[in-house]
């Protein structure tokens, strides 16, 4: 077990320092293999790479189609049109609520959270400027709207965190709808009231809006240059409806969204190739980053010490729902990736939890939803999406991580525990 602990600590530390997971994952895997007495070359070429390749084979198409859809929404201005309309309807003085709903609608409609960051940031700055709200709350508002309830909790979301558990538990995207709605409301409502409390607290200290500087400066959004907001909303609705109502595959749903964006914005057809190319390139990096983390997990699960880890997890004197949530959250925290951590945990323990559910008459749908929500309750300082968010906004951990911790980790943990208790009562 010592080799696994050393490997996990090294992976988390190096990722926090900014080293790419693409090369530190195989490096740390090699250290674990050496300390465990495993054959170094075979551990890398067979065990590590098998885990890497299996994840890429299963989920690269989803990353690809999702990234292309999101990039087309961004480059055509469709994402900004939806966000701008929401902000104008809610009112510029309600900056936090407007930005929260804008990010939530886009992510629930299938747009990657990375794309949402780039698309909504200019509008967020304009809204916070108009409402005179401190910019240090922009990252936490993004996290709440894009990284939490629409990513993991609300049933039907096409985000990858709601897709991965399907293969393990033989469920669908609508798994455990009551648990999902409850968890989503806890995160959305609880996070919103916390952010409003922080807004008042900052105002009382005269900490108000300050203009971003350098590369983080943004141009004001010109509504007249944006496409029609109604037509821009249709592709988002199409992805969710075709996926959940007509029960077609996530790939087909995203493809329909892509085609609709292109049809409604045909005047920009010259930009389509560039957007598709950038989306495809981005999907490769996202897939490789996550696959690298999953490959590390595959090697860890193959090491001799992992049997002891499994014994410890399964010996937790609580419901299997609790131990599964703990395993998923722990892996997501360590890897800095909700999907990567979930992939590691399900690769190692998914079959056992499936059998436990069947043997003990527990709900496979509840396992699905708990897995998804627990994976999102993991946003530590080295989280990859968070680092991107800070880069885009020009803010730092010192500025904003305290608020991110509350809305992105603490409140989602409360939501996870709540739905576990409801699942134990037989509620799905």
UniProtKB/TrEMBL annotation:
The keyword Oxidoreductase does not apply. Signal peptide: none annotated. Pfam families: GntP_permease (PF02447). InterPro entries: Glcn_transporter. The chain crosses the membrane at residues 7-35, 95-124, 136-154, 174-195, 249-266, 286-306, 370-392, 404-427. Keywords: Membrane, Transmembrane, Transmembrane helix. This is GntP family permease. It comes from Thalassobacillus hwangdonensis.
